[in-house]
Amino acid sequence: MSQPNYNQPYQYPNYPNVQQNNSLEHFQGSKFKEKSIIFGVIGFFFLGIVFGPLAISNARKAEALHHSATVGKVLGWVDTIASVLGLLVFLLLFLPAAFRGGH
Predict the structure, then answer these.
(1) CB-based contact 76:40 (threshold 8 Å)
(2) Carries keyword Transmembrane helix (predicted)?
């Protein structure tokens, strides 16, 4: 039996499916992905009716450039739906009270 030679430097395996892509398209897709997450997080706390659709839009642009932007898309939809539901609750509860004169 032969002993392994520990004096040789370790070489990392070459994975054929992994690509290092430094093109402009890859960079733009990465930026759209980041922006979708940022807009999704901002919309979770402030003006979800505005930032939610922005997050969804940027996630779609990132996915068109072959980047997975699931987090940004989900946050965008959560922001949008929560904002619309909040607006409906506001209109259904507080608007009739305003027309009754507070009685």
Answers:
(1) yes
(2) yes
How large is the greatest C-alpha to C-alpha distance in the chain, in angstroms?
95
CB-CB contact of 62 with 29 (8 Å): yes
- pLDDT of 98 reads 74
For residue 36, the tally of other CB atoms under 10 A from its CB is 29
- The residues, any chain, with a CB within 8 Å of residue 76's CB and separated by 6 or more, are 36, 39, 40, 43, 51, 52, 53, 54, 55, 56, 57, 59
pTM value is 0.70
* pLDDT > 90 fraction of the chain, expressed in percent and rounded: 55
Q: Give the per-residue pLDDT at 18.
A: 44
Q: Which residues of 49-84 are buried (b: 16+ CB within 10 A; e: fewer)?
A: eebbbbbbbbbebbbebebebeebbbbbbbbbeebe
Residue for token digits 């009716």?
49
